[in-house]
Write a structure and sequence with these properties.
Layout lengths: L3 E5 L2 E5 L4 E4 L2 E4 L9 E3 L5 E6 L2 H7 L9 H11 L6 E5 L5 H9 L2 E6 L2 H14 L5 E5 L2 H4 L6 E6 L4 H5 L6 E11 L2 H13 L3 E7 L2 E7 L2 E9 L4 E6 L2
Parallel strand pairs: 7-8, 7-10, 8-9, 10-11
Antiparallel strand pairs: 1-2, 1-6, 3-4, 5-6, 11-15, 12-15, 13-14
Length: 241
């Protein structure tokens, strides 16, 4: 079994089969083959439940080397591009690797580039934790230098400052009908990526922002929360004709 969570109310501890986990509620001797839903007690008799890692858990528990793309944006990328099993994906700007892990867990074959070697090493460890080390390859380096030798892809995802320059070169690296998705924290980069896609002759060019708000329910009534996930980034999509 891969890494999993031990859960008790609002407490979550990342663990591995056969581990000895120290918590404020006691020490857990984790079995070698725990099953999801199994209850394991600490040496003080405090119960924890085994839970398999899923996508949102990766966002919370992967080791971070920066601000990872949030689930709300990852969901839009998957929904707008139709990312699916057996897709060949090029991802640039790996960072923590949350997007690459989500795509790998869909069954896509992902090649992801991270400019900083130390961040790439953390991302490789995160792919192992996510259980996708066999389908997600993390390379350290500049994707712009390697692009001409990489062939074609069903989907290209970019979270890099030079995304507009990469978009300009994608007509030879996307299959017919393939998508590019650019994540831009700043509107200047989003606009440049949008315009670059148009100039490159890509189709269905669109830039959006997704805002997420929770709902508050109490005795007075119901309304959107005054807190929430506001701006995280702009998403630019385009498609090879």
């Amino acid at each position: 079994m891969r890494a999993f969570l031990l859960v008790r109310d609002d407490r979550e501890f990342l663990s591995h089969p056969g581990a000895e986990l120290h918590t404020d509620l006691g020490v857990v001797d984790v079995p070698d083959d725990p099953d999801p839903g199994q209850v394991i007690e600490t040496h003080l008799g405090e119960p924890f439940t085994v839970r398999s890692l899923r996508g949102p858990d990766l966002f919370d528990h992967l080791e971070r080397t920066g601000a990872p793309m949030m689930p709300k944006d990852i969901g839009v990328v998957i929904g707008e591009t139709g990312a699916a099993a057996d897709d060949r994906v090029l991802d640039a700007g790996t960072g923590t690797g949350v997007l690459a892990a989500y795509l790998g867990r869909l069954g896509a074959d992902v090649l992801t580039y991270e400019a900083r070697a130390e961040f790439a090493e953390v991302a490789r460890e995160n792919m192992t934790l996510a259980g996708v080390a066999d389908t997600v390859e993390v390379r350290a380096g500049d994707v712009t230098e390697a692009l001409d030798d990489l062939g074609t892809f069903d989907l290209v995802t970019l979270d890099t400052a030079d995304a507009p320059d990469i978009v300009a070169r994608l007509d030879d690296h996307l299959v017919s009908g393939g998508f590019v998705a650019v994540y831009s924290p700043f509107v200047e980069n989003a606009r440049a990526s949008h315009e670059s896609a148009i100039e490159a002759g890509l189709a269905d060019v669109d830039t959006i922002e997704t805002i997420q708000r929770a709902m508050d329910f109490d005795d007075r009534g119901s309304r959107p929360s005054t807190r929430g996930v506001g701006h995280t980034g702009y998403l630019t999509f385009a498609r090879n004709p």
